[in-house]
Design goal:
Shape: globular
Helix content: 40-55%
Strand content: 15-25%
Largest sheet: 5 strands, mixed
Order of helices and strands: HEHEHEHHHEEHEHEHEHHEEHHEHHH
Number of strands: 11
Oligomer: single chain
Structural class: alpha/beta
Bound molecules: beta-D-galactopyranuronic acid
CATH class of the largest domain: Alpha Beta
Radius of gyration: 20 Å
Number of domains: 2
Length: 352
């Protein structure tokens, strides 16, 4: 009897998950819209003995977005390295739900893998917050030195505390503010604006430090919230601004690059624990190998989407160094709040 109830609960949860994924608002503009099926072409055909393990990977972005291409490369490499023993199916376009819900399901084993932003994952593994501190990296190269060195490896391990296994990092460039109300030329201009943030305390603090009012919500709700005026603006990188069509409803984009938040691929610890050591190794190696592929796709897309925003008539504001320094000064208190991780922050800053 008890088993029946548990089965029923799990079935209901899975159903809810599938339907939650359908709630995503605006179809993608730059890439193929999500279909009600995963990318199945990535892995080899099942072995003749039928002993293939099929695992699901959740991705909120549409097919063709740089992280989704990274996921497919990861899936392909897992298939190759396990000689078809493991097949990873990529469920793109938030078919399995929005990021916070997906994390919870990865934790209890209902979803095997997820590609997510570090921002919401840091709610469960606090150390990760250092990776999204405002202006922590000198540039992209510095960020990758940190991520692909001992600091990045230790931080991937820290995710295990949150019942997940950190597998790799992907590039997500820099995030900047955009809004439907006015051109932002200084910190002063942000005062009082209602800005959507990811579901992350650090991101809320960042927006507050700049004098605006943060509203956390899932990415899939942002388009309609901008359209109906529930929020005045949001912040993201060029590819998300374009692919989620936010550029249609929030035309003022200011290149303040206030934070560079890497992406992360996580596995469910429950899923990994059920696999052989050999398969676990193959998965880890595939994830690490997919990084360079994703980085190259990222750079291409970022450039294309900045151009796309210009062509679409968006008002793009590039800030001079003096104004960027004002942004940096305003968000400096976030470093005091992170003093538990002062040593780690110092190590990041000293990474050459
Ligand atoms: C994007 C990121 C997504 C999601 C989104 C957001 O840059 O790739 O995973 O976190 O931002 O703002 O919710």
């Amino acid at each position: 009897m008890a088993r029946k109830i548990v089965c029923l609960m799990v079935a209901t949860m899975l159903l809810l998950t599938v339907f939650a994924g359908c709630g995503a608002s605006k179809p993608a503009a730059s890439t193929e819209p999500a279909k009600a099926e995963a990318s199945k072409e990535a892995a080899p055909a099942p072995k003749p003995d039928g002993k293939q393990i099929v695992l699901r990977l959740a991705e909120i972005h549409p097919k063709g977005y740089p992280t989704e291409l990274g996921d497919e490369e990861f899936a392909r490499l897992v298939g190759e390295k396990t000689k078809g023993r493991i097949k990873v199916e990529v469920y793109f376009g938030a078919q399995l739900g929005q990021e916070k819900a997906v994390i919870e399901q990865v934790q209890f084993g209902a979803i095997d893998f997820a590609r997510i932003s570090v921002s919401p994952v840091a709610e469960f593994a606090k150390e990760l917050n250092v990776l999204q501190l405002p202006y922590i990296y000198r540039d992209r190269e510095h960020m990758w030195k940190v991520l692909q060195g001992p600091i990045g490896d230790d931080l991937l391990k820290s995710v295990e505390k949150a019942k997940m296994v950190g597998l790799n990092w992907y590039d997500a460039g820099a995030r900047s503010f955009y809004n439907s109300k006015k051109e932002i030329k200084s910190v002063e201009d942000l005062k009082g604006l209602k800005i959507r943030v990811q579901e992350s305390k650090l991101m809320m603090g960042l927006v507050k430090a700049l004098g605006a009012s943060p509203t956390p919500m899932p990415m899939g709700d942002v388009y309609s919230a901008l359209q109906t005026g529930v929020i005045d603006g949001a912040e993201n990188n060029w590819p998300s601004y374009i692919s989620a069509s936010h550029f249609e409803v929030a035309k003022n984009y200011t290149v303040d690059r206030h934070t560079m938040v890497p992406e992360i691929t996580v596995a469910s610890k429950q899923t990994m624990d059920k696999l052989s050591k050999e398969d676990q190794e193959a998965i880890r190696a595939a994830a690490k190998e997919a990084i360079e592929f994703q980085k190259a796709k990222w750079i291409e897309q970022e450039k294309k989407d900045e151009e796309k925003a210009k062509a679409a008539g968006c008002k793009i504001t590039y800030l001079d160094d003096k104004t960027v320094a004002e942004f940096q000064k305003a968000v400096a208190p976030l470093y005091d709040d992170a003093k538990d991780f002062a040593d780690l922050i110092k190590k990041i800053q000293e990474t050459k």
